């Protein structure tokens, strides 16, 4: 794929240097030497094209990781739980996924820590197929039905469980079915494989616009998330095993720098800028739909990458609603994230 080499602002800066006739050889050499210095980092992500992971895509496509001297390889999986598994098995160094996994892994005796937060709300919605359930009226009608999630154990299942709990239903009152991400998930709903689907945008906006899906639980705005979860719920983040953060602090800092730079870019990006920055495949053949979905979730992206003050506590509280057994384990929330890398990145980019 063709990657944009320069943002509009960077183009102006480079043009000025070009006029002076001093930039080309030195900059190229410096970038090559910097990349060689930090080497390669592999990031596993569940559903690379969804808006949930947009800051990661932008940091990669706009060259922000390269600018930090880091060569990033992104491995895409159909669900966040599978991306985490890749890290556990040594197939990736870092995971892009829901913050809640750091808590779950601590309960299982593993030390994972978020190093930069990309989303401060889940950006998910639970939609019901009006083809499969034409008489659907409320959440109680989902009793005994099949609910599509990216995979069992992923954040989509947690979010769906929280929505269902508001109607007095527990996880065993429905059947959760792993359907992957993107078009596979959408086709599972449309074909009747599942009666409802919990997924991220732009898929959910597409299903809404086709008028064959009714939204039963919406977590795609800060207000909705606040009402649903009772606080700021950190969602997409970069998290890694604690040994990686200790042994490869320079790489972790470069990752945080790239994401914070992308988050800053998002604050002022125009729709046309976004369309040019993301790979064409992410647009699903409909620029208007993609931008409508982006507009719906735009406020939920972090503005600086820091963990919200109540973020980790809110995440634990939400997990405990669905998994009461967590009450028997003392979770050390301070070990599930660090803001150290983001603080340095904010100083660098004046965020």
UniProtKB/TrEMBL annotation:
Residue intervals passing through the bilayer: none
Main subcellular localisation: periplasm
PROSITE patterns reported for this sequence: TAT
InterPro entries, per the entry: SsuA/THI5, TAT_signal
Signal peptide feature range: 1-24
Domain SsuA/THI5-like: 52-265
Keywords from the named record: Signal
Pfam (any one): NMT1
Compartments where located: Periplasm
Family statement drawn from the similarity comment of this UniProt entry: Belongs to the bacterial solute-binding protein SsuA/TauA family.
Protein name: ABC transporter substrate-binding protein
Annotated organism of origin: Acidovorax facilis
